[in-house]
Amino acid sequence: MIALLVRFVLGPLVRAVYRPEVHGVENVPLSGPVLLAANHRAALDTGVITFATPRQVKFLGKAEYFAGKGLKGKALAAFLGGLGYVPVERGNAQAGLAALEAARKVLDAGGVFAIYPEGTRSLDGRLHRGHTGVAALALATGAKVVPVALTGTENLQPKGARIPRLAKIAITFGKPLDFSRYEGQDYAPAIRRSVTDEVMYAILDISGQEYVDTYHKRPSEGAA
């Protein structure tokens, strides 16, 4: 019920208010497993993808967000579930494997899962080297990979703003990538790296960002 409310009531309302430019939505296959691989500019990117994609999209979410008690906690958990978040424990040695397994279940069921290959938001506006989880999922499930470019979302909620502001934003869906030629080679590190790089260059092609061939690291606490 919450998912339907988000999709058919909240979604149209958000689109009417913010009027995002949506390009290439026809590139998202209407059936079968699909992996949306997006650049990451802001915390609200997940919402933008949710409201712009013609199919329900699943994302990873911190398990603690779903563990709240009382009416407020249950309401938050229901809302996040409606947005498509899948709860996953983080902060332990098995976190990465748990995240991949959660994503794989969605794809194996023929669903749509969204991932940010950079691993974190870009604080300098550039597109950084991708982690190979995107390749591991694509190769293991046979999912088509659709590159996604988000533009202007970093202006929706600038630092210090509690309520999202009106800003010109755009989301572009690129042509789906098929990696079936690598069937049976999903555990080969060189293949994973090659697939990931191909995905990142596809994102680069539609985003127009500057590319940096290094992983993006957030500054440490207290850094200037």
TrEMBL record:
Keyword Nucleus attached: no
Name of the molecule in the record: 1-acyl-sn-glycerol-3-phosphate acyltransferase
Entries under InterPro entries matching the protein: Plipid/glycerol_acylTrfase (IPR002123)
Annotated keywords: Acyltransferase, Transferase
GO MF annotation, one: acyltransferase activity
Keyword Acyltransferase: yes
Phospholipid/glycerol acyltransferase domain mapped to chain residues: 34-153
SMART domains named in the record: PlsC
